Amino acid sequence: xxxxxxxxxxxxxxxxxxxxxxxxxxxxxxxxxxxxxxxxxxxxxxxxxxxxxxxxxxxxxxxxxxxxxxxxxxxxxxxxxxxxxxxxxxxxxxxxxxxxxxxxxxxxxxxxxxxxxxxxxxxxxxxxxxxxxxxxxxxxxxxxxxxxxxxxxxxxxxxxxxxxxxxxxxxxxxxxxxxxxxxxxxxxxxxxxxxxxxxxxxxxxxxxxxxxxxxxxxxxxxxxxxxxxxxxxxxxxxxxxxxxxxxxxxxxxxxxxxxxxxxxxxxxxxxxxxxxxxxxxxxxxxxxxxxxxxxxxxxxxxxxxxxxxxxxxxxxxxxxxxxxxxxxxxxxxxxxxxxxxxxxxxxxxxxxxxxxxxxxxxxxxxxxxxxxxxxxxxxxxxxxxxxxxxxxxxxxxxxxxxxxxxxxxxxxxxxxxxxxxxxxxxxxxxxxxxxxxxxxxxxxxxxxxxxxxxxxxxxxxxxxxxxx
Amino acid sequence: xxxxxxxxxxxxxxxxxxxxxxxxxxxxxxxxxxxxxxxxxxxxxxxxxxxxxxxxxxxxxxxxxxxxxxxxxxxxxxxxxxxxxxxxxxxxxxxxxxxxxxxxxxxxxxxxxxxxxxxxxxxxxxxxxxxxxxxxxxxxxxxxxxxxxxxxxxxxxxxxxxxxxxxxxxxxxxxxxxxxxxxxxxxxxxxxxxxxxxxxxxxxxxxxxxxxxxxxxxxxxxxxxxxxxxxxxxxxxxxxxxxxxxxxxxx
Lengths: 468, 251
Prior knowledge:
- The complex is a heterodimer.
- Chain A has helices spanning about 5-15, 20-55, 75-80, 90-100, 160-165, 180-190, 260-265, 270-275, 300-310, 320-360, 360-370, 375-420, 430-460, 460-465; strands spanning about 60-65, 105-110, 110-120, 120-130, 145, 155-160, 190-200, 225-240, 255-260, 290-295, 310-315.
- By secondary structure, chain A is α+β, with helices and mostly antiparallel strands.
- Chain A folds into two domains: about 5-55 and about 325-465, no CATH class; about 60-315, no CATH class.
- In chain A, strands 3-4-9-6-8-7 form a six-stranded mixed barrel. Chain A has a four-stranded antiparallel sheet with strand order 2-10-1-11, with helices on one face.
- Chain B is α/β, with parallel strands linked by helices.
- In chain B, the strands form two sheets. In chain B, strands 6-7-8-3-9-10 form a six-stranded mixed sheet, with helices on both faces. A four-stranded antiparallel sheet of chain B has the order 2-1-4-5, covered by helices on one side.
- The interface of A and B includes residues 9, 364, 369, 374 and 376 of A.
């Protein structure tokens, strides 16, 4: 018998005892729904966790430091490779070299310094950090009030919510932060403040604009020297951000952010300047660390290895991510097993329904065999019926599971809101899960049809036709 | 052929049954439903198998139909020994070589007449496009074209048996096996059905084997009467009344 005929007969037979078959199909649906619900919870939680971690930038970021930074010298990775004294300096040329490596999205120097900002004649001491333009597109700035820097050199800043509170003289409440960023932003946006900082200048130097590089006169490093000049810069507040300090890109506690190019042009005195004074020309910046953003977390390992070969120390949380992924795989398996239990019950339901159908349609099977149906035809017909119930149950079940997920998501978010947590989307039904669930339901149903179909096929037609 | 020496010359036997036995166990006792039957049916012949209930006549028919397998002996239909066919081959044989009608019609209740008649063509994997017209032709032949979209339960017994005949005919089998085809019908409708059987036999050249316990019916339509009792052949005789009977009807 050909497939269209098979399908047609199967659907017709299913309709003949519509109530029983509907109930069985609902049983399958519930099983599939529970499987989908469990797995989408697992996937959703995993996505939530990785979204948070991606936001933190820990998984696609490699922090590169010079081997001359001796602070972590005891770590294993420092023992291999060139000795700290012979290693390369982390300067602009190196940064560009790293940026050209395959898999690297961007490499930008990590500029941060502690300095004083004056607002309405009151000094505020804080950590200032530079942000590359790409930071704008990360989720971390989702809750930004105002706007991001208009250009990479604009004298503008984005301040962190806690700093805004400080500027406005508000006492931050302990525990849950209730203040809305918008309330803080309104009186501050567009205001200017003055940053005082220490500028490093090559000596002898002509006091000139901070941005201009003096012509190369660096042949004699022995005589290199800096002069440190105190400078002031007026900066406009364009944005107030509500960053989770734990999840900021790179390990930072900065509360004020500058555009990267602007920060570079300021030549703010950095701790590395003193360390590298014997090697680097005074007018070339030497970075204490460079943040490298990798295109995908999967490429982190390769990029890290490449940078290590260049003779630098690297740091990423790849290993942490591996164990987290492993945890979620185990969680998925457990959730899948619990979800499958309901499907196992549905499996028995299908077997039961089909065995009943054989008893009921004993005569019909006998007739079909008498007029020429082969064992295979009968077997395939029962398989088709089981499969049709499986597919239908799978589709309904996926919809049901999705709906259950939405309801739970909604309910939990209402609860989270009451507890003053931001709403989270921890429920996810990716398309492959939909396909997998329907396929799985189909296969389970076919497996359930195995015994009844075999039994129907083996039915002796003479016996089946004997009694009225 | 010698036993059926009537006016029509016959070719090679369509059915040869040799030392056929079908025994089965029912509890402790061994039932010998068929116990050493030999018979031959020629192509185009109309044969009646007669006997009381339990004589083994239906069992012989089921063995010829390939619905059952002999305990020993051979059933050779058009040079194919059914005992040697696989299950798959046997179902193909039932599908293409044999058409069957039963006392209880055995139409599928959930299908319309057209669908019932179409069902063997589905198993035979005949193209969808051809099936409709073939089913319609078969139903027209038995006078049911107006009822083709009715379900069996909406029809009289005679109509149901006519539909069953249309279904038996649909794959153009060489052999028509009828198991008490009029057993559930009144005499008038029974005659109607028997006339169709004879029409199939005479116009389409189908070999017909009919099981019945009504001797009068057999004498009226069959060319040869075979009597069975206790699973054995009791007599195998040419129906003397047949020729005169048909001539009387022709007049």
